[in-house]
Amino acid sequence: MLSKSPKRILVAPLDWGIGHATRCVPIIQELVRQGAEVILAADGRPYDFLKKEFPELVLIRLIGYGITYPKHELLGLHLLLKSSSILKKIKNEKILIEKIVLEHAIDIIISDNRFACRSDKTLNIYITHQLNIKAPFAENLINRIHKNYYEKFDEIWVPDTEKEMNLSGELGHVATTKKRHRYIGPLTRFTKANDINSRDRKWWLIVLLSGPEPQRSIFEKIILTEVAKHTGEVLLLRGIPTSEQAVANPFPHVTVLNHLATEKLEEEILNSHFVVCRPGYSTLCDLAALNISPIVVPTPGQTEQQYLATYHTKQNNVVTISQKKFNLRDAINKYHQLKFFGIYPEPQVLGQRIREILRG
């Protein structure tokens, strides 16, 4: 009897920063481990990241939504003004996806927050940690629009635990959770939780920059101004996955890199006294897995990050400092008696769900 051909899976993350791509890493790895034929589709920095992380896999350029942050804090208004352009790109995405499905004989699509990455010819899975979007205005309308998109998918995967103690809070937990909402555990590209007492402490501070422009660059300038006032060894990672070569900077105690591969990044984070980062959900999942309690600086106007920062500050997992008033000394002074998140990936849950869709 002929053996059954492996399922062909398309994994497509959103191009809003690289967090959507990084959290797809354990999904891609598990799919490959279970014998699936994986094809990747991305744009922008996620494309560059996946090309480095999985050079052996087919990677298709799938034009992204081109979302940017404004220099001011009126992100909601900025996105509203850009909505017609975004909607046009979503329509084009639908056309491109149908073409990819036919050309590559796709069986299953796993879309991380890409609204039109689905087809009537495939099983369609949507990944989001925001069943409930926090917005500065028209929150109910925005949630209805989002729900209208994700309800067209066959399954919705929430990268969190369903338990009372969780990472996403109200974002990923709603009263009307349906049967096809699957909690697959926090997703992280990192592999282990380490005892904080065993760390080497190579770096006084490591800074993890992330998110769309121009706010990523604005925060980078603020950080460089602040670290100039200190003498401890600092590693600044710019979140631009194009090269791992050092970037020129005027301070001898500061090492600036565009990007580090996952294994090396994990090692450097574990060898640091303090971590400064955005409270993006994927970043929090990564740090929680490593038992790291960070100093977080929400992106101005990004209500999701503001909510997560407030939520985890109340849990005593993070120190939150605003970008406008950011002062590194003040942040370090507030860094005391923080506790670990205590919430870890659930690889057996993810593995079981992938096993079921591949057998379906």
Q: What secondary-structure arrangement, pairings included, does this model have?
A:
Layout (H helix, E strand, L loop, with lengths): L7 E6 L5 H4 L2 H9 L3 E6 L1 H10 L4 E4 L13 H7 L1 H22 L3 E5 L10 E5 L11 H12 L4 E4 L22 E3 L19 E6 L6 H13 L6 E4 L8 E2 L6 E4 L4 H9 L1 E6 L3 H9 L5 E2 L6 H12 L4 E2 L7 H6 L13 H13 L1
Parallel strand pairs: 1-2, 1-4, 2-3, 4-5, 5-6, 6-7, 8-9, 8-12, 9-11, 12-13, 13-14
Antiparallel strand pairs: 10-11
Description:
The chain has 2 domains: 8-187 and 345-359, Rossmann fold; 196-333, Rossmann fold. The protein is built from 12 helices and 14 strands. The chain is 35% helix and 16% strand. It has a 7-stranded parallel sheet, with helices on one face. A 7-stranded mixed sheet has the order 10-11-9-8-12-13-14. With 360 residues, the chain is of the alpha/beta class. It has helices at 19-22, 25-33, 44-53, 75-81, 83-104, 139-150, 215-227, 262-270, 281-289, 303-314, 328-333, 347-359; strands spanning 8-13, 37-42, 58-61, 108-112, 123-127, 155-158, 181-183, 203-208, 234-237, 246-247, 254-257, 272-277, 295-296, 319-320. The longest helix has 22 residues, at 83-104.
